[in-house]
Amino acid sequence: MPTRRSAWMTEDLDQLRGLARTFFEKEAVPHQERWAAQKQVDRGFWHKAGELGLLCLSIPEEYGGGGGTFAHEAVLLEEQARCGDSAWGNSVHSGIVAHYLASYGTEEQKRRWLPKMASGEYVGAIAMSEPGGGSDLQNIRTRALRHGDEYVISGSKTFITNGAQADLVVVVAKTDPSQGATGISLLVVETADAPGFRRGRVLDKIGLKGQDTAELFFDDVRVPADNLLGTGEGQGFIQLMQQLPQERLIIAVASIAGIEAAVALTLDYVKDRTAFGRELIKFQNTRFTLAECATEARVTRAFVDECVEAHLAGELDVPTAAMAKWWSTERLCRVVDECVQLFGGYGYMTEYPIARAWADARVQKIYGGTNEIMKEIIARSL
Ligand SMILES: Cc1cc2nc3c(=O)[nH]c(=O)nc-3n(C[C@H](O)[C@H](O)[C@H](O)COP(=O)(O)OP(=O)(O)OC[C@H]3O[C@@H](n4cnc5c(N)ncnc54)[C@H](O)[C@@H]3O)c2cc1C
């Protein structure tokens, strides 16, 4: 499918794209079935990505990162989506967790944790959602209460991406349970040295089969008071609100890349497969369906690119990021569903990438804030 070159692309990013494409084709594509069966990527994959400098691309070099911008993360995300990999949780690790540390960590915290995340020695996770609710963050139950120079964390989290492998978890907890949003703080737990920390099940999902989405339990886990992110307690909710636009843009970028990949895959298929003595592409229904899908891809690409440019300029606001998230994920689900239809029965077979793309797409409307919550955010801004 003819796609336009995004205006934010540069020669430097072209080189990164080439490196990322080769990396995914060589190191991810051949292992996807095995990763799905074991419900996680190989730990060595993180190390290989670290050795190639693909982790923490937008974190400053002085902390071991790539010294790039969000555009570097976007290129990596696009290439991951293009090759059909949904197992590797780098968007959470590099695109989200590392940015909480970089934005709110002290100099000492950044030097302690970011180089390990950039090398792959540490895998990062963020634990917001709880069994009792994910959308209503103000009412989380996990507590982090100060005792001397420590915090004692108790509670449970669920649906945590990278949960089975995480060495560092940013935990969203109430430091003042009597308060709503202003009682929330973010604390870092290093899982290797945290008695009372326990991983639960790696959850069975309808898609993202190779991603270790897990339950985490905190039974009076003690962390040094220095592991608080920010200059004081009660800043967690604001920190989340500041970082969520990037998380939502990450989902939008992956979604548009997924849309483009699905249309390209389907075009190849319908030019090859025949029915009633002619290629599927010759049927008007096939042509019209793909014409619609290609148009939706183009429109979505234009909007997501506009958001990437705004974010690079430091101007992406919360409602616009919410628009990008709900719009692109809805389009992704619709387009991939149409593509599955054009594959016929093969579109339902998990050995076909389009079937896996269909199952992987569904959650995009749910996580990162559900699309209903996105519409609430947008509506409030009107
Ligand atoms: C594969 C996967 C990976 C995930 N990774 C992470 C992770 O790394 N870290 C993390 O913290 N979380 C993660 N999540 C959790 C995810 O963010 C939550 O599932 C999501 O925020 C929704 O929360 P919930 O599941 O509790 O649904 P609920 O909040 O119970 O919502 C249920 C339904 O009610 C609707 N609803 C709720 N409130 C409103 C309202 N005010 N107005 C209208 N409708 C409303 C919702 O839109 C939804 O349709 C992940 C989830 C999945 C499935």
TrEMBL record:
Residue ranges of every copy of the Acyl-CoA dehydrogenase/oxidase C-terminal domain listed in the record: 234-382
Family: Belongs to the acyl-CoA dehydrogenase family.
Cofactor: FAD
SUPFAM superfamilies: Acyl-CoA dehydrogenase C-terminal domain-like, Acyl-CoA dehydrogenase NM domain-like
Keywords: FAD, Flavoprotein, Oxidoreductase
Keyword Membrane: no
Occurrences of domain Acyl-CoA dehydrogenase/oxidase N-terminal (ranges): 10-121
PROSITE patterns given in the database record: ACYL_COA_DH_2 (PS00073)
Known role: Catalyzes the dehydrogenation at the alpha-beta position of ACP-bound acyl chains. This results in the introduction of a double bond in the lipidic chain, which is further transferred to the epsilon-amino group of lysine residue in the mycobactin core by MbtK.
InterPro entries the record matches: Acyl-CoA_dehydrogenase, Acyl-CoA_DH_CS, Acyl-CoA_Oxase/DH_mid-dom, Acyl-CoA_Oxase/DH_mid-dom_sf, AcylCo_DH-like_C, AcylCo_DH/oxidase_C, AcylCoA_DH/ox_N, AcylCoA_DH/ox_N_sf
Single annotated GO MF: medium-chain fatty acyl-CoA dehydrogenase activity
Protein name, entry field: Acyl-[acyl-carrier-protein] dehydrogenase MbtN
All residue ranges annotated as the Acyl-CoA oxidase/dehydrogenase middle domain in the record: 125-221
Pathway: Siderophore biosynthesis; mycobactin biosynthesis
Keyword Zinc: no
Highest taxon listed in the record's lineage: Bacteria
